Amino acid sequence: MSTTVVDVDGALEAAGLTNEAVKEFVRYWAEHTGAERIEVVSAADDSRLIEEALAADEIQPAGEGLYYSRSYSKDTARSEERTIVATSNESDRGVYNNWRHADEIRPVVEGHMKGALAGKTMYVIPYLMAPPGSPLEKFAAGVELTDNRTVCLHMIRMARVGVDLINNLAEPDHFVRAVHVTGDLENLGQGTPDDKRNFVTVADQRTILHFGSSYGGNALLGKIAHGLRQASYDGWASGQFLSEQFMLLGIHDKQTGKTWHVCGGFPSASGKTNLAMTLAPDALGDRYHVSFYGDDIAWLWVGEDGALYGLNPENGVFGVAKDTNEKTNPTALESIAPGAQALFTNVAYNPDTHEVWWEGKTPERPSDTAGWVDWKGEKIADRNPDEAGDPWAHPNSRFTTSLDQVPNVAPDYSDPAGVKIDAIIFGGRTRDREPLIRAINDLAEGVYDGLTLGAEATSAADGKEGVLRYDPMSMRPFMSYPEGDYAAHWLKIVGAASEQPIFAHVNWFQRDSEDGHFLWPGYRENLRALLWLCRLKDGEVTGRETAVGVLPTEEELDLTGLDLPREDLDRILTIDVPRWREEMGYRQEHLEQFRELPEEIWVAHRRVADAVQRAEG
Fold this sequence. Notes:
about 625 residues, alpha/beta, Phosphoenolpyruvate Carboxykinase, domain 1, Phosphoenolpyruvate Carboxykinase, domain 2, Phosphoenolpyruvate Carboxykinase, domain 3, 3 domains, six-stranded mixed β-sheet, 16 helices, globular, disordered N terminus, decarboxylase, kinase activity, GTP-binding, PEP_carboxykinase_N
């Protein structure tokens, strides 16, 4: 349904949208952007929108019920330096949130949006970033305005979309106002001093203004901008919840009937999605079943019964395609199988056969390059010899699919009550220093461990081999308020739970210092470490105390069906004390940059540092 800009109300009413606050929001932005037509989108429109996008050559077929899209070559990932958190209070400035005053940045981005939709359709996407009826539903409602039909298709998969979700809000005016304008992508000066892109979350006004992209977290405003940045700020401002870049899974013991729920944060390239979508190892599959809840965001709160609860606010998976294959993540491949209505972005594509491919999908590239185009849309067969080794797919190429396509999705994934959280884990890719798993029973030390979470950069930082890039709670790109307040809010929310979750740090990536082989096989075998952690929380095992936490003993770690070399097993169950002594100095420097960290965090730091100094080895 469409209309001219002078009949906005007619378009909204014809779509059944009755929320007057939403109407006012749409009316204002239709005039500001000069949109020619208004179209309200619901999940029921998906098939029609796909047909329209195919006809307009915005997407291409990629097999039965699968679709391929390509973004502009300079618009392929989030841009942290152009991503801004704005408020009206400078005390909200943090180290990582790239804070600007709302009065300074709003006129800039709104100026770029002025008249930018002349002759175009403004799509209105009413959505919820949580199951209807959730205790946090008040913070989940949003309306995204966009000029991009493919964004609508992604949002339908990643959120719950429909006018019924927004018409009957308990507080009709309490919704996130999100505006996305693609802009003239080839003339935005990406990466130059004249860069016109701005991706702004005006957190204290619950407004999101993104200009200059059609890609991923820059354009799907319900996902990162609302689900993480805005929700994180809302959780702090209300004092009611945490919003974290966490995966969430369930582990069911078929023998005892016990189910545990584990959530946690992992920096980029540290295995978060693979863990979230993992299955039990073959040797343990008869006893344990793993359920998928989400791979990217978790909202955490304390329920009326005093327990810590969590849910995945998203309704889909926006996964990195690179290295996704039958070994690393068979669950993901099943979720994007023919008929899944999945979307692929910036992978390699063959328009003749409708196949897609990415690095790591198969051991070798397709042998016949005829017809194949790379992520830039350039014919691979026409490459010169110097380009032969260049990637076919962009390293940040993606697949988008809905949760109901994930074969082991939890039966209660859409339960508005959420699930009780038993354990919170952190994990960063590091070749040494971190053992397979170390458990932490103290809340302040658990929060401290999250604040000092890090992973090795792809190249050594500052010339120091093995130095970590710190990524607090894996939220470094998504922080929306100061880190000291963030730590205090963690202590408050989790500290209010009558039954505390157990914390742990995991590391699947230890390597042998001589030949570089991984000491732990990873992937599905990682469940063994989580099973030990859950048993530790339940008092079934005791572990071994060390300076930096409790480690499993060999007898406690279920190694059924797994044959590890003795020296490798010893290494992953041991603390490298000299490396930890070095690490504590880096942690001190990292924490000193944050304003007003709670004293409990400094006490935890000193306690760990002293224990490391006293440790043998």
